[in-house]
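Q: You know discrete backbone vocabularies at least as well as I do. I have my own habits and do not want them to colour yours. No explanation is needed for now; the record alone will do.
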Amino acid sequence: MKANVYKIELMVIDFEQMGEAAVCQVLEQNKYLSPSVVASAERAVEWDDDHPLNNGKTWRAAFDELFKEQAE
């Protein structure tokens, strides 16, 4: 059987306060895909509607800044 394999970096905003492990589990338990979470990291932010992650023009820079030490 042929399968496509994807390496995917996701940003998930956890409004439900599920926690990192639960979010990973939800992604992995999807019955239509077969993802495996290889690595994950968590950062806390104070959220409001004006947060840079909630803006199409600024979310990527804000995301990169949150995880900059992980990339180094």
Observations:
- The mean pLDDT is 90.
- Residues 20-71 form one domain.
- The two ends are 38 Å apart (CA to CA).
- The chain has one domain: 20-71.
